[in-house]
Each structure stands twice: as structure tokens, then as C-alpha cells.
Amino acid sequence: MSSKFPEHFLWGGAVAANQVEGAYLSDGKGLSTSDLQPQGIFGALTPRVAGDSGIKDVAIDFYHRYPQDVALFAEMGFKCLRTSIAWARIFPQGDEEVPNEAGLAFYDRLFDEMAKYGIQPLITLSHYEMPYGLAQKYGGWASRKTIGFFERYARTVFERYKHKVKYWLTFNEINMSLHAPFTGVGLPEDSSKSEIYQAIHHQLVASAKAVKACHEIVPGGQIGNMLLGGILYPLTCKPEDLLETQRQNRDWLFFGDVQARGAYPAYMRRFFRENDIQVEITHADQQALRETVDFISFSYYMSGCVTTDKAQNNTERANILNMVPNPHLASSEWGWQIDPIGLRYLLNVLYDRYQKPLFIVENGLGAKDRLEADGSINDDYRINYLNDHLVQVGEAIDDGVEVMGYTSWGPIDLVSASKAEMSKRYGFIYVDRDDAGNGSLERRRKKSFYWYRDVIRSNGNSLKAK
């Protein structure tokens, strides 16, 4: 039987620098905004003092152990590995004119290691962090100056790695800034809507400038945006619920509309007007935004519901969003509802909307894995979750959706973004470290490691439809 997945489908996994690398001040790296969030993106902003430590300072020590980890990814057959460059490794304060050579050299070594195994890098320029110096001195993305600092950084890494990295992303889950402003745009959590949307606008302009730079510098380069795919369903068939669902979905689709279509949609102009949100958008900004992405990438973990009935509007925090639970779905240990069909639906929504190739760059199940007496980890729950989601990806491809690849989050256990936990494990590879930072950092293959290896070898033919 021929596979539904294209012949050159980019199978792999996804990690982020601040969740795996550690070495948080090594080789000239500056403090990042992530370093000021030792308890995760929902934890308090904590100034660093001499002698303190956080779990992300070492994380899983990927900075020193990447050859071992890349070899394990190659053993699974990865065609692609998504990671990010820590901006503060390249420009420690963010506003320097000359980059930090030691930081650049680290990513040269990493990309060379991946090339040994034929693994394509998919590189995010800014994944939930920026140099803290920019937040401190300029107010982060509140300042127009940050656009120029980001463009300098982007051009620096494009020039350095133009023959090593073909696939790029600008900002990780760019729509998340609406829910966690410090993590997304370096603003205080109590910032006004006008302040947040102005910072987001600067980020959108910077993203477009990076797209232009990539097209100019990287031979055959492709660059995409990255959305948190928080697809919402109406809780009932009441027209009011349908209209409110459309409005709330537009809260995040707006970011894709600007980056894929090159202009602000009319519904956002109405939203700004009716909510008294002031955003300075210059003629030069409008011209810059016309440079659009080559593909749409997104994360998908769960769906949610929307209702206008206040009696039923009991939202629950899941992932970064507050959503009304779907009564027809089961949930993970962390309360994230499991909806494989939602991934097929989302793929169709995005492809219908943009008619651009799509890339699923995050999807996975966080769970508390148990180490058996013989050292094995039998994570059938993860296998079932990923199998069911990938079956639906195959169905979307059959629907006519152009899907470039799939990078599961995260292929090796890492420090979770939301609460900086090791106990919330996603990987095919177990890392011996606990929430207190204890452990040998030894790597072990889980049962899902061999399952995913077979999926990739068979190009999806080993998946089991229900």
C-alpha cells in the first residue's frame, strides 16, 4: 500500500534552546528573558543574583551532549530537527554591533553534526526568549528600535548558516503574546492592550523584514511563521456561539493573516476601533509587511470550545489558553483535552485560508513516565496519542492539504515551558533528571522510540487507523 505521506515528508522532532541547552551563561551568552523565568512562562519574573540557580540553567545539557542526542535522533531516522537559536548567545545584550563568535561557533558545530546524518535543521529565530538587555533598556518589543536589532540578528545568522540551514521560522507561537506578554514581547504582564498590540505590530514588521532578508541571503531558503494552533469550536449550534467562536479564532488567525497575506485584515481594524486600541502603523510598516512567508507552521496540542452562555462559560487553563472544555473529549494528566480529529480540521482550515504549504512543528503528549525495574519505559499512552494524531494528518493529506512535515514535541525529555518541570515528559528519549534538578542526565530509549522509528521507516504506513 502506498503511503498517504509524501515521499520527501520531513519527519522529526522539535525542541527549544532555552528548554534543552543549559549552559545559560557559557561562552559569552547574555541573560535572556527566559533566564528571568525560572518557574516557567507563568512564573514570576525573578531577577538573577549571584549564586542562585534554576532548572533551565542546565536543562538537559544539550549544549554539551548534542552529539549523543543527534545520534539518537538519527537512529530514529529523523529527516528534520527543529530547534532554536538562543538570540542572547549571538548578541548577549541584543544591541551590540558585533556578534559573539563563540555563540555562532556552537551552532556551526550543531548543524555540522546534524548534516553528518542527513538531518535538515528547521531553525526558529526567537523561541520564547530575547536578550534581557533589550527588555531592560528598550522595553522589549515596545520599542521600534528592537525591529532593527532583530533584523541585524536575523541577517547575521542567515549569512553565517546560509549553506547549512534551508528552513527557518521567525517567532515561536507569535500569538501567545496576547496571553503572556513578557515571554512573547518583553512587556510587563499588566500592560495595556494598546501597548501589547503595538509591541506585536513591531514584531510582525520584524518578522517580515526577516523573511525579506532570508529570501535575499539564503540560496533556496524557505521561511515560515509559527502559530499556536488554538482551534475553537462552538459549544452549541446557537448562532451567537458560532459568531463568538469566529471572533475568538480570529484573535490568533490574525497573526497568520498578516504574515501570509501581507496586510492587516479589516476585522482587526474594527476590533482596534471598538476597543480603543491605538497602534501606530506607518506607511513604511505597511510596505514591509508585504513580504510574506513561504509556509505556515503551527503547534497543535488540543482544541477548545466557546459559548456565550455565562452559566456554561467555565473556562479551564490548558496550555497557554483558557478554554471551555469539550464534554465529548478525554483529557491528559495536565488537563489538556485530546482531540486528534481537531488536527485534521485545523489543517483543512489553515490550507483553505492561506493556500500555502503547512508544517506541523509541535504536537505531543506530556505525561509522568514510569521507569520499570528493568529500565524500560512503556509509554503506550504516548504511542496511542501520536498514532491517532498522525492518522488524521494522513487524512488531511488525502483531503488535498499540502503538509511539508511533522516534528513532534519534544523528541527528548526537556524542561516544560509552562511550569519548568522535568516530570512533564514528552520524549521518545528519557532523561534522568527530576524537577529539583537531581539526576545523572543519562538518556534511555522509551518504547515510543522504536515505534516512531518504524513510523518514519515506513513513511507512515505502520500507523494504525481505528
UniProtKB/TrEMBL annotation:
Membrane-traversing stretches: none
Pfam families: Glyco_hydro_1
SUPFAM superfamilies: (Trans)glycosidases
The name this protein goes by in its record: 6-phospho-beta-glucosidase
Family to which this protein belongs: Belongs to the glycosyl hydrolase 1 family.
Organism listed in the record: Serratia oryzae
NCBIfam families: PRK09852.1 (NF007356)
InterPro entries cross-referenced by the UniProt entry: GH, GH_1_N_CS, Glyco_hydro_1, Glyco_hydro_1_AS
Active site: E362
Keywords: Glycosidase, Hydrolase
GO cellular component: cytosol
Domain of life: Bacteria
The keyword Hydrolase is annotated on this UniProt entry: yes
GO MF annotation list: beta-glucosidase activity
GO biological process: carbohydrate catabolic process
